[in-house]
Request: fold
Amino acid sequence: MAGILFIISAPSGSGKSTLVNALRSQLGGLDFSISWTTRQPRGSEQNGREYYFTTREEFERMIAAGEFLEHAEVFGNYYGTARRSLDDATAAGRDLLLDIDVQGAQQVRQKIPEAVSIFVMPPNPKVLRTRLRNRSRAEGHVDEAVLKLRQDEASKEIENYRQYRYILINDVLERAVAQLEAIVQVERMKQDGMPLDPRTKRELEIAEGCREVNSRERLRPVLESFGIDPGDGPHQYPLL
Ligand code: ADP
Ligand code: 5GP
Reply:
Protein backbone atom coordinates (compact mmCIF):
# COMPACT_ATOMS: atom_id res chain seq x y z
CA MET A 1 0.00 0.00 0.00
CA ALA A 2 1.26 3.51 -0.76
CA GLY A 3 2.46 5.45 2.27
CA ILE A 4 1.03 8.72 3.56
CA LEU A 5 2.58 12.02 2.51
CA PHE A 6 2.85 14.46 5.43
CA ILE A 7 3.67 18.12 4.82
CA ILE A 8 4.82 20.28 7.71
CA SER A 9 5.26 24.03 7.40
CA ALA A 10 6.03 26.76 9.90
CA PRO A 11 7.67 30.15 10.14
CA SER A 12 11.42 29.68 10.51
CA GLY A 13 12.38 29.27 14.17
CA SER A 14 8.97 27.93 15.29
CA GLY A 15 10.55 24.63 16.30
CA LYS A 16 9.54 22.48 13.34
CA SER A 17 12.88 20.63 13.07
CA THR A 18 12.88 20.04 16.83
CA LEU A 19 9.37 18.56 16.63
CA VAL A 20 10.17 16.42 13.60
CA ASN A 21 13.31 15.01 15.22
CA ALA A 22 11.37 14.16 18.39
CA LEU A 23 8.60 12.55 16.34
CA ARG A 24 10.99 10.44 14.30
CA SER A 25 12.81 9.25 17.42
CA GLN A 26 9.46 7.93 18.71
CA LEU A 27 7.74 6.60 15.59
CA GLY A 28 9.15 4.30 12.95
CA GLY A 29 8.22 4.00 9.29
CA LEU A 30 8.45 7.71 8.58
CA ASP A 31 11.02 8.83 6.01
CA PHE A 32 12.20 12.42 5.95
CA SER A 33 12.69 14.03 2.58
CA ILE A 34 16.06 15.75 2.42
CA SER A 35 15.55 18.94 0.43
CA TRP A 36 17.90 20.61 -1.98
CA THR A 37 18.90 24.19 -1.25
CA THR A 38 21.22 26.90 -2.52
CA ARG A 39 21.68 28.41 0.95
CA GLN A 40 24.94 27.95 2.82
CA PRO A 41 25.16 25.23 5.51
CA ARG A 42 24.40 26.54 9.01
CA GLY A 43 26.16 25.48 12.22
CA SER A 44 26.88 21.76 12.18
CA GLU A 45 24.71 20.98 9.13
CA GLN A 46 26.13 18.38 6.77
CA ASN A 47 25.55 17.85 3.09
CA GLY A 48 23.20 14.89 2.64
CA ARG A 49 21.95 14.98 6.25
CA GLU A 50 19.92 18.19 6.76
CA TYR A 51 19.99 19.25 3.08
CA TYR A 52 21.71 18.63 -0.21
CA PHE A 53 23.57 21.92 -0.61
CA THR A 54 24.10 23.01 -4.19
CA THR A 55 24.70 25.99 -6.47
CA ARG A 56 22.07 28.12 -8.21
CA GLU A 57 23.32 26.85 -11.58
CA GLU A 58 22.84 23.20 -10.59
CA PHE A 59 19.46 23.96 -8.98
CA GLU A 60 18.26 25.72 -12.15
CA ARG A 61 19.43 22.78 -14.24
CA MET A 62 17.36 20.46 -12.00
CA ILE A 63 14.29 22.72 -12.38
CA ALA A 64 14.67 22.66 -16.17
CA ALA A 65 15.06 18.87 -16.10
CA GLY A 66 11.78 18.53 -14.13
CA GLU A 67 13.52 16.88 -11.19
CA PHE A 68 11.53 18.69 -8.48
CA LEU A 69 8.13 17.79 -7.07
CA GLU A 70 8.04 21.38 -5.86
CA HIS A 71 10.47 24.22 -5.40
CA ALA A 72 10.37 27.79 -4.16
CA GLU A 73 12.54 30.76 -3.43
CA VAL A 74 12.63 31.38 0.32
CA PHE A 75 14.65 34.17 1.97
CA GLY A 76 16.59 34.69 -1.30
CA ASN A 77 17.60 31.04 -1.76
CA TYR A 78 16.12 28.16 -3.70
CA TYR A 79 14.68 25.18 -1.82
CA GLY A 80 13.15 22.12 -3.44
CA THR A 81 11.92 18.55 -2.97
CA ALA A 82 13.26 16.05 -5.48
CA ARG A 83 10.59 13.87 -7.12
CA ARG A 84 12.87 10.99 -6.32
CA SER A 85 12.22 11.33 -2.55
CA LEU A 86 8.55 10.63 -3.11
CA ASP A 87 9.19 7.90 -5.69
CA ASP A 88 11.53 6.05 -3.32
CA ALA A 89 9.12 6.27 -0.35
CA THR A 90 6.18 5.17 -2.53
CA ALA A 91 8.15 2.21 -3.89
CA ALA A 92 9.05 1.17 -0.33
CA GLY A 93 5.46 1.74 0.93
CA ARG A 94 6.73 4.12 3.63
CA ASP A 95 5.26 7.37 4.91
CA LEU A 96 7.16 10.48 3.88
CA LEU A 97 7.48 13.79 5.68
CA LEU A 98 8.20 17.02 3.80
CA ASP A 99 9.43 20.04 5.76
CA ILE A 100 8.65 22.78 3.25
CA ASP A 101 7.45 26.39 3.20
CA VAL A 102 3.90 27.56 2.44
CA GLN A 103 4.57 28.05 -1.30
CA GLY A 104 5.93 24.51 -1.62
CA ALA A 105 2.99 23.14 0.40
CA GLN A 106 0.55 24.79 -2.03
CA GLN A 107 2.30 23.17 -4.99
CA VAL A 108 2.28 19.71 -3.39
CA ARG A 109 -1.39 19.98 -2.36
CA GLN A 110 -2.32 20.76 -5.95
CA LYS A 111 -0.51 17.68 -7.20
CA ILE A 112 -1.37 15.36 -4.30
CA PRO A 113 -4.62 16.52 -2.65
CA GLU A 114 -4.63 13.61 -0.19
CA ALA A 115 -1.37 14.82 1.40
CA VAL A 116 -1.80 15.52 5.13
CA SER A 117 -0.68 19.06 5.91
CA ILE A 118 0.30 20.38 9.32
CA PHE A 119 1.12 23.98 10.22
CA VAL A 120 3.24 24.80 13.27
CA MET A 121 2.94 28.21 14.92
CA PRO A 122 5.11 29.83 17.55
CA PRO A 123 3.03 31.20 20.47
CA ASN A 124 3.89 34.85 19.75
CA PRO A 125 6.50 37.05 17.99
CA LYS A 126 8.56 37.54 21.17
CA VAL A 127 9.04 33.80 21.66
CA LEU A 128 9.83 33.42 17.97
CA ARG A 129 12.51 36.12 18.21
CA THR A 130 14.06 34.44 21.25
CA ARG A 131 14.10 31.01 19.54
CA LEU A 132 15.66 32.37 16.36
CA ARG A 133 18.31 34.19 18.35
CA ASN A 134 19.07 31.23 20.65
CA ARG A 135 19.46 28.94 17.67
CA SER A 136 21.86 31.36 15.96
CA ARG A 137 23.89 31.68 19.15
CA ALA A 138 24.04 27.90 19.53
CA GLU A 139 25.25 27.69 15.94
CA GLY A 140 27.89 30.31 16.72
CA HIS A 141 26.77 32.95 14.22
CA VAL A 142 24.16 35.66 14.80
CA ASP A 143 23.35 37.56 11.61
CA GLU A 144 20.93 40.39 12.51
CA ALA A 145 19.78 40.87 8.90
CA VAL A 146 18.92 37.18 8.55
CA LEU A 147 17.07 37.20 11.89
CA LYS A 148 15.05 40.26 10.91
CA LEU A 149 14.14 38.80 7.51
CA ARG A 150 12.87 35.60 9.13
CA GLN A 151 10.88 37.49 11.79
CA ASP A 152 9.32 39.79 9.20
CA GLU A 153 8.24 36.84 7.05
CA ALA A 154 6.55 35.01 9.95
CA SER A 155 3.21 36.89 9.84
CA LYS A 156 2.91 36.45 6.08
CA GLU A 157 3.43 32.71 6.41
CA ILE A 158 1.03 32.40 9.34
CA GLU A 159 -1.69 34.10 7.25
CA ASN A 160 -1.87 30.82 5.27
CA TYR A 161 -2.69 28.66 8.30
CA ARG A 162 -6.22 27.85 7.12
CA GLN A 163 -4.85 25.95 4.14
CA TYR A 164 -3.56 23.22 6.48
CA ARG A 165 -5.49 20.25 7.77
CA TYR A 166 -3.98 20.46 11.26
CA ILE A 167 -2.54 23.37 13.25
CA LEU A 168 -0.13 23.04 16.17
CA ILE A 169 0.97 25.77 18.55
CA ASN A 170 4.50 24.90 19.62
CA ASP A 171 4.44 26.37 23.12
CA VAL A 172 5.18 23.52 25.52
CA LEU A 173 7.41 21.17 23.54
CA GLU A 174 6.15 17.89 25.05
CA ARG A 175 2.55 18.79 24.28
CA ALA A 176 3.32 19.75 20.68
CA VAL A 177 5.28 16.49 20.16
CA ALA A 178 2.34 14.49 21.57
CA GLN A 179 -0.04 16.31 19.21
CA LEU A 180 2.16 15.65 16.21
CA GLU A 181 2.48 12.00 17.14
CA ALA A 182 -1.30 11.68 17.56
CA ILE A 183 -1.90 13.22 14.12
CA VAL A 184 0.46 10.74 12.46
CA GLN A 185 -1.04 7.77 14.34
CA VAL A 186 -4.61 8.80 13.55
CA GLU A 187 -3.87 9.30 9.86
CA ARG A 188 -2.23 5.88 9.77
CA MET A 189 -5.22 4.27 11.45
CA LYS A 190 -7.58 5.96 8.99
CA GLN A 191 -5.51 4.71 6.09
CA ASP A 192 -5.56 1.19 7.50
CA GLY A 193 -9.28 1.34 8.36
CA MET A 194 -8.51 0.34 11.96
CA PRO A 195 -11.25 0.36 14.65
CA LEU A 196 -10.96 2.76 17.57
CA ASP A 197 -10.00 1.21 20.91
CA PRO A 198 -9.79 3.33 24.12
CA ARG A 199 -6.14 4.27 23.46
CA THR A 200 -6.68 5.29 19.88
CA LYS A 201 -9.81 7.24 20.90
CA ARG A 202 -7.57 9.44 23.02
CA GLU A 203 -5.27 10.01 20.06
CA LEU A 204 -8.21 10.86 17.86
CA GLU A 205 -9.33 13.45 20.41
CA ILE A 206 -5.88 15.02 20.49
CA ALA A 207 -5.61 15.10 16.69
CA GLU A 208 -9.13 16.50 16.26
CA GLY A 209 -8.21 19.18 18.79
CA CYS A 210 -5.64 20.41 16.25
CA ARG A 211 -8.28 21.15 13.60
CA GLU A 212 -8.77 24.86 13.10
CA VAL A 213 -12.47 24.62 13.84
CA ASN A 214 -11.68 23.05 17.23
CA SER A 215 -8.84 25.36 18.21
CA ARG A 216 -10.16 28.82 17.44
CA GLU A 217 -10.00 29.98 21.06
CA ARG A 218 -6.36 28.87 21.39
CA LEU A 219 -5.47 30.33 17.99
CA ARG A 220 -7.05 33.72 18.57
CA PRO A 221 -4.36 35.22 20.88
CA VAL A 222 -1.57 33.74 18.73
CA LEU A 223 -2.98 35.23 15.52
CA GLU A 224 -3.63 38.58 17.18
CA SER A 225 -0.07 38.75 18.51
CA PHE A 226 1.13 38.49 14.88
CA GLY A 227 -1.33 41.19 13.78
CA ILE A 228 -3.61 38.71 11.95
CA ASP A 229 -7.37 39.05 12.18
CA PRO A 230 -8.67 35.66 13.44
CA GLY A 231 -11.90 36.34 11.49
CA ASP A 232 -14.68 33.84 11.23
CA GLY A 233 -14.39 32.79 7.63
CA PRO A 234 -14.90 29.31 6.24
CA HIS A 235 -12.24 26.78 7.05
CA GLN A 236 -10.79 24.58 4.41
CA TYR A 237 -11.00 21.35 6.36
CA PRO A 238 -14.40 20.83 7.99
CA LEU A 239 -14.72 18.11 10.61
CA LEU A 240 -15.28 14.58 9.40
P1 ADP B 1 12.58 25.52 12.76
O1 ADP B 1 12.96 24.17 12.26
O2 ADP B 1 11.10 25.74 12.79
O3 ADP B 1 13.26 26.64 12.02
P2 ADP B 1 14.06 24.80 15.20
O4 ADP B 1 13.52 23.42 15.44
O5 ADP B 1 15.43 24.95 14.68
O6 ADP B 1 13.05 25.66 14.28
O7 ADP B 1 13.89 25.58 16.60
C1 ADP B 1 14.34 26.90 16.78
C2 ADP B 1 14.90 27.03 18.21
O8 ADP B 1 13.82 26.94 19.16
C3 ADP B 1 15.87 25.92 18.60
O9 ADP B 1 16.92 26.51 19.35
C4 ADP B 1 15.03 24.96 19.44
O10 ADP B 1 15.81 24.27 20.39
C5 ADP B 1 14.04 25.90 20.12
N1 ADP B 1 12.71 25.30 20.41
C6 ADP B 1 11.96 24.56 19.58
N2 ADP B 1 10.77 24.23 20.15
C7 ADP B 1 10.79 24.78 21.40
C8 ADP B 1 9.83 24.82 22.48
N3 ADP B 1 8.64 24.24 22.42
N4 ADP B 1 10.18 25.50 23.58
C9 ADP B 1 11.38 26.13 23.65
N5 ADP B 1 12.33 26.14 22.67
C10 ADP B 1 12.03 25.48 21.54
P1 5GP C 1 15.95 26.90 6.75
O1 5GP C 1 16.83 27.79 5.92
O2 5GP C 1 15.62 27.51 8.09
O3 5GP C 1 16.45 25.49 6.86
O4 5GP C 1 14.55 26.79 5.97
C1 5GP C 1 13.89 27.96 5.55
C2 5GP C 1 12.51 27.61 5.02
O5 5GP C 1 12.64 26.80 3.85
C3 5GP C 1 11.65 26.81 5.99
O6 5GP C 1 10.35 27.38 5.96
C4 5GP C 1 11.62 25.43 5.40
O7 5GP C 1 10.42 24.73 5.68
C5 5GP C 1 11.70 25.75 3.92
N1 5GP C 1 12.15 24.62 3.13
C6 5GP C 1 13.07 23.68 3.43
N2 5GP C 1 13.17 22.77 2.46
C7 5GP C 1 12.26 23.12 1.51
C8 5GP C 1 11.86 22.56 0.25
O8 5GP C 1 12.35 21.53 -0.21
N3 5GP C 1 10.92 23.24 -0.44
C9 5GP C 1 10.33 24.39 0.01
N4 5GP C 1 9.39 24.95 -0.73
N5 5GP C 1 10.67 24.93 1.19
C10 5GP C 1 11.62 24.31 1.93
About this structure: Residues 9, 12, 35, 39, 70, 72, 74, 79-81, 99-101, 103-104 surround guanosine-5'-monophosphate (ligand 2) (CB under 6 Å). The mean pLDDT is 92. The first helix runs from residue 16 to 26. The first strand starts at residue 5 and ends at 9.
